[in-house]
Design a protein that fits this description.
Elements: H1 48-53, E1 61-65, E2 70-71, H2 76-86, E3 91-95, E4 114-118, H3 124-128, H4 154-165, E5 171-174, H5 175-180, E6 185-187, E7 192-194, H6 197-201, E8 205-207, H7 212-223, E9 237-241, E10 250-252, H8 256-261, H9 263-275, E11 284-289, E12 293-297, H10 306-313, E13 320-321, H11 333-337, E14 340-342, E15 344-345, H12 356-360, E16 365-366, H13 369-380, E17 388-389, E18 391-393, H14 405-410, H15 432-442, E19 449-450, H16 458-463, H17 468-476, E20 481-487, H18 491-497, H19 502-519, E21 524-531, H20 538-551, E22 559-560, H21 568-575, E23 577-578, E24 583-584, H22 591-601, H23 609-618, H24 636-649, H25 651-662
Helix pairs in contact: 2-7, 9-21, 17-19, 20-22, 22-23, 24-25
The chain binds iron/sulfur cluster (SF4).
Length: about 725
Amino acid sequence: MAARKANPRPTGARGGTSTPARKAASRPAGAPAPAPRHSEVDFPPLTAEAARARGWDQVDFVYVSGDAYVDHPSFGAAIIVRLLESKGFKVGVIAQPDWTDDASVTVFGEPRLGFLVSAGNMDSMVNHYTVAKRRRHDDAYTPGGVGGRRPNHAAVVYGNLIRRTYKHAPIILGGIEASLRRLAHYDYWSDALKRSILLDSGADLVSYGMGERSVVAIAEALDAGLAVSDLTFIPGTVFRTSSLDHVVDYELLPSWDELSADRRAFAASFAAQYANSDPLTGRRLVEPYPHGVYVVQNPPSEPLTTAEMDAVYRLPFTRAWHPSYDEAGGVPALAEVKFSLVSNRGCYGECAFCALTFHQGRIVQARSHESLLEEARALTDDPDFKGYIHDVGGPTADFRGPACADQLRRGACPGKRCLAPEPCRRLEVTHADYVALLRELRALPGVKRVFVRSGIRFDYVMADPDPTFLRELVAHHVSGQLKVAPEHVSRRVLDVMGKPPHAVYEAFAAAFDEENRRAGKRQFLVPYLMSSHPGCTLADAVELAEFCRDMGHNPEQVQDFYPTPGSMATAMYYTGLDPRTMEPVYVPRSPHEKALQRALIQYRNPANHDLVREALRRAHREDLIGYGPKCLVRPEKADKGKKEGAGKAGKGAGKAKTAGRKAGKEPGRPGAPAPRRADDRGGRPSRDAGPRAANRKGRGPAPKANGHKGGIRKQGK
Ligand code: SF4
């Protein structure tokens, strides 16, 4: 990333520590944390007037985003805009344009070099719809948290919107939506295969994965006078062409016609894409379309070095939403990350339901301690900081380096996972660096506690012979509950998911309990569980329900598998095949079977009892219907009688319920054990709501956008 002359900013204030903040005291409970007040001149211009105030007649780039503009490194738009500014480019931002009005993208006129377009920190369809395809009404990335400010398939809509007015301006798509839809992909919401987003959006290029290198390369090439049609050589990009004469060293993927005709071809194509997602070994991929059109994916960008990552996070972010959003109450997604630190990116965990590998890759890149300490010190200067750093993490909090030395020499092994079903013997297992970092952070003046809220890989913890990390995690970095993601208990399902055997989770749970005893603490382990993942039959779901029964866990928030673009499990969902082996995999698809699986996990809820009985009968597990201590549900008659009795008994029934709870038993079910370690009070937050819920690896989703999990709604670790 060569440096150009830095773009002078009207004010050079960094971090906003010199400006007064709104007081938090009068904030209603649950309201987003207020951002420090900043002047508009501290931000990239969002209006033509703001651009003119900088003396700009024309901007170099217009960045069109489906999110409100939040100037914080957890938001992809901020990283790209600030990075281009640092290279001397003038960038105007159009946040959440009205897609029904062509004039909404003409705010700055035609940019000198091009439009950069992103749907936002999350795929717009994941943002807009639940897994049941119900419309969400809220939107953490919009001022006031209201929904409806961005279109479905936002990157496609924005691309066409721009193209209607600017016939020849280069349009470059980026962000998670474009990245995971860069080649033909399955779209769950329309239940259909879709073409590369490049073709449907009218754009010229897609910058996929973490965009810093490719966006700067594109900007510099355009600035040097190259036509966008000449930009066929930049790693981390996708382009279209009508001739393969000058495309070298490529692998031909199945054509669109083949993909449309045969799901097996899609599974094979996805396997090839996955195998070529490593920057060291990935080849150029070509996907042919009708009428002589080819979509070409160049190999992935090289990961950033530690020094380069540090430089990105040192850019002059105000760490605040744009002041024009103050009146609406600000942008809720900021509250989630405002006092959190992104310490790494990339993940070699490779959970099948998580698209992170497909976006950020398997090579873990980490910031230096100095960089993180510098950011933490800036946090302590923030008037709203109360002494608590909410998170120090990334896709997987406890990964701080590459899986093994070989990974950096010859790329990650294409046909092998680093951690599952058991850790590779070459895997370098150490938490020493992370432990040292956490110690340094909690020793900072002004810091009371440092929490770890990003997921940890408990199998990686258990593979570490040194207990120091778990010991210090329990003693210092858990706030009452540690959420981990075993996701399931059935060996068959765990194998498909890429998770370790259940015994590893049990060993971790025992070690967690032991460390709590040692620390004199009473903290709970909350397991994330997932229903209806490919590979999960009703028999497997019954096994999971029995686990919930035996541990006294009553999960109120169960994540149904969500087939989001770009994950291995989504390819399984669409094709019924495991792309890694091309073997058939069972897929629960019908809403009713999904309801049965979900009801089994939440079998204690009386509203689920009919479904539970049906599921148990279908799975030939009638032995679990009855009155015994192992039974999940009573027979219909007893339930019916209970309902009628409850109706007649009125207040008396309520008293009986209370008495049952006091005795440590679940009302209506004899012999239910008291909660052992999981939160039986429904304390687990939904992974299907809020900014952190994704990408996360999926979590979370989380607004960790371009610098993090890329707004993938989190589906566990
Ligand atoms: S050798 Fe093992 S640890 Fe290294 S990349 Fe391959 S699977 Fe991962």
